[in-house]
Write a structure and sequence with these properties.
The complex is a heterodimer of chains A (about 140) and B (about 400). Chain A is α+β, with helices and mostly antiparallel strands and about 140 residues long. Chain A has helices spanning about 40-50, 120-125, 135-140, and strands at about 5-10, 15-20, 35-40, 60-65, 65-70, 70, 75-80, 85, 90-95, 100-110. Chain A has one domain. In chain A, a hairpin with a 7-residue loop joins strand 9 (about 90-95) and strand 10 (about 100-110). The relative contact order of chain A is 0.18. By secondary structure, chain B is α+β, with helices and mostly antiparallel strands. Chain B has one domain: Lipocalin (Beta Barrel), CATH 2.40.128.630. Chain B is built from ten helices and 29 strands. In chain B, a hairpin with a 3-residue loop joins strand 24 (about 335) and strand 25. The chains are: A alpha+beta (about 140), B alpha+beta (about 400). The interface of A and B includes residues 109 and 117 of A.
């Protein structure tokens, strides 16, 4: 079980320590125009962070997917116009200064932002490579899943 | 004349494919192991024809040459209708139903020797591909690349037919479309639409942003285009061209051509819908919303003239009331993708549903820019590709939804 406070720690196999913050507005019941919300349990969210792609390489942001039977599963909700949509892609970002290494994450809309899109490696050797071709194509193409 | 309305020609090929494209007598199959394999399509189909001589005409027109049926000005069909006996005999041949199934492209090659030995090895699977003007264009999250073909396509299957892979831009794109005046249009989600001139290859700086609004896909529409979005508004865009020279023939003159955006019409307001799927073809702009399909006359939209009598049309077709993933107008009708099926609204008003039955559709393609493959629909599933061809007297003559290069709107 994760710590009931808003922060969790994780030490990787190579001894590197990470602090992960559950930001309250990404855990509200409903998304707002510019803030998506998680719909999975915090345990799962934290698990997706610790196994996110390329986390150990020193990158300042990483992605992950919740996959079941080769299909991407929804991890959150977001707003598109006046309607709510399911979100499938997890985005984790490091907001560290030199003193503290602190991460947080939120679900992103793969049909929307270009700056929050995973690299080719994410699809070729990372979590994306475990998807069925249909979901892989739709994620890359920015089509609804 | 036969009671049957349209033919059902189908070739199934087993394999792990991600995409396909047919171009100039070759079938390009993109496999999940990031290779483009090339099948000598003409040789393959001609071999099938030799084994099925009774169906030679149908096979030829379904898979090798659609131009007699669809592309030309209808003289061929007029000629057929002037002689009842010949017309009936012809349609009988066209309206046959024949299915072919192959376990793999290797099986096809063993049987007919039509697979090129060399493959194009890619670094990543593309979000979209387009083969146009002797180039394969590929876009993905890592940018835009092109692979030019060599001038002479080798008849020897062991020769390489392409030059080196050229990186055009590192900018991520999700879709590529050909456009008039020698440009490609590229969709870049929240970063909008870019255009890339085809006559000035290799210079990344020639890539220019032309629309700053969210764009998931572009449908080309003669000189104009439609910018559609899964998360935001769709726009019909009128392009304006200033020619440097009256004739605009040389490369130098084409370089001086200025293509800009003259007008931008938000389509959601025109159709008064928030979540419709928009697409266009020639003279019409279409919207599918809440299980209905509507069209607007494009000129009326661009002229902002809602009072034109012919401006809006509602088709009497019932469609599933579920999200449309993609739709296009082709010569044989409107093709609509849903999560679990494809629906084809044939040009004579009839409807065909292709159920996936648990299979997962990776991708699908039609070839509106081609001369010979206008009647084909490629469905790429996880473990096989289905190549359909749709033909029939009703859909060739009466074109409710379809387009024609000369006549425009059909009633």
């Amino acid at each position: 079980m994760i710590n009931p406070s808003n922060t969790c720690s994780y030490t990787s196999a190579n001894g590197k320590k990470y602090s992960y913050c559950f930001i309250p507005y990404h855990h509200y019941a409903c998304p707002t125009d510019n803030k998506s919300v998680w719909t999975i349990h915090r345990d799962e969210e934290f698990g997706l962070f610790t196994t996110s792609f390329d986390l150990l390489s020193g990158a300042s942001s990483t992605f992950n997917l919740l996959i079941d039977n080769y299909e991407a599963q929804p991890v959150g909700k977001g707003k598109a116009g006046s309607s709510e949509i399911k979100l499938f892609l997890c985005y984790f970002i490091n907001k560290s200064d030199s003193e503290n290494i602190e991460w947080h994450g939120y679900p992103v809309n793969h049909m929307d932002q270009n700056r929050e899109r995973p690299s080719s490696d994410f699809y070729d050797v990372g979590p994306g490579s475990k998807l069925c071709p249909r979901d892989l194509k739709r994620l890359k193409r920015g089509k609804p899943l | 004349m036969s009671d049957k309305l349209y033919s059902s020609w189908l070739i199934k090929i087993g394999g792990n494919f991600f995409d396909s494209f047919i171009y100039s007598g070759k079938l390009y199959l993109l496999t999940l192991d990031k290779k483009i394999k090339c099948l000598h399509w003409d040789r393959f189909i001609n071999s099938i024809i030799k084994e099925n001589k009774d169906y030679a005409v149908g096979l030829h027109m379904s898979f090798l040459d659609s131009s007699a049926l669809y592309r030309i000005d209808g003289k061929f069909l007029t000629l057929l209708s002037s002689d009842k006996d010949i017309g009936e005999a012809f349609y009988k041949k066209i309206l046959a139903s024949l299915h072919f199934k192959f376990e793999s492209i290797e099986e096809i090659n063993t049987k007919y020797q039509c697979l090129y030995n060399k493959t194009i090895d890619l670094e990543t699977l593309p979000a979209d591909m387009l083969i146009y003007q002797k180039n394969i264009f590929l876009c993905s999250e890592s940018g835009l690349t092109r692979i030019p073909f060599k001038n002479r396509f080798p008849s020897n299957l062991s020769n390489r037919f392409w030059s080196e892979i050229i990186k055009v831009s590192n900018k991520p794109f999700v879709q590529i479309s050909s456009a008039s005046y020698g440009y490609l249009l590229l969709s870049s989600l929240s970063d909008g639409v870019y255009q890339y001139p085809l006559w000035d290859y290799g210079e990344g700086q020639k890539l220019r942003k032309i629309l700053p609004y969210h764009c998931s896909y572009v449908t080309r529409d003669y000189n104009d285009f439609l910018s559609g979005s899964y998360v935001d508004k769709a726009y019909l865009i009128k392009r304006k061209v200033e020619f440097a020279d009256e004739y605009d023939r040389t490369e130098e003159e084409r370089r001086k051509r200025k293509v800009s955006i003259e007008r931008r019409i938000p389509l959601n307001e025109w159709f008064s819908v928030e979540n419709g799927f928009f697409f266009s073809q020639n003279y019409l702009v279409y919207c599918i919303a809440n299980g209905h399909i509507y069209s607007f006359n494009k000129k009326a939209v661009l002229a902002n003239d809602r009072n034109r009598q012919d401006s809006i049309r509602h088709y009497e077709v019932s469609l599933p009331n579920k999200p449309v993933l993609e739709a296009r107008v082709e010569v044989f009708g409107v093709v609509i993708e849903y999560d679990d099926c494809m629906i084809i609204l044939f040009a004579d008003g009839h409807k065909k549903e292709i159920l996936f039955n648990g299979r997962k559709l990776t991708s699908w393609r039609t070839f509106p820019e081609s001369r010979n493959y206008l009647n084909q629909l490629h469905l790429i599933f996880e473990n096989e590709i289905e190549i359909h061809s749709f033909n029939g007297p009703a859909i060739m003559v009466r074109r409710e939804f379809g387009f024609d290069y000369k006549l425009g709107i059909f009633e």
